[in-house]
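User: I'm writing a tutorial on reading structure tokens. Could you give me a worked example: one chain, its sequence, then its tokens, then a sentence or two explaining what the tokens reveal?
Assistant: Sure. Here is the example chain.
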Amino acid sequence: MDNGKAYTIAKGFDIPAAAACIRYYGGWADKNTGQTIEVNESKMAFTIHEPIGVVGQIIPWNFPLFMLSWKVAPALATGNTVILKPAEQTPLTALYLCQFIKEIFPPGVVNILLGYGPGVGQPIVEHPLIEKIAFTGSTAVGKQILAQSGQNNLKKVTLELGGKSPNMFVSFSKQSSGKQKRV
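And here are its predicted structure tokens:
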């Protein structure tokens, strides 16, 4: 369900990392007090913490469970609602989690929309009532999102773009087992 990756990888990294992320941000839900800078006695300074509002989140295919937790948990811990668009290649993880989400949160707090970028992602980015976009994906799409954010309500944008993990295998670096070494 988590994009066909090996069971050992999902069990060894994805599930524990997602659980740790949710526990971490869940622990911050009532501890996010902030700091107020001290000012002169004749002045008054205070800090007000308010949720951003509706956060549109678009996640990639490579770590559907971890990326979902990494985006949704901090948004919820700080009092926001979420509209999540999982990658069209890996929607089943988000759909599976819906059964738990609906048991924990009131309707409308976490919303999952399925589909392709132009039909679902772009309307999320352009919607004037969505106050923040968190996107992980290509640099080209990230640039479009950033440009569009200033065209309606100047929404907050967080981008994680162009992640690559290139490997080069060279014949002169064979290990004693006869396998090529990754450089």
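What the tokens reveal: The chain has a mean pLDDT of 88. The helical segments are 7-28, 64-77, 92-104, 117-126, 139-149.
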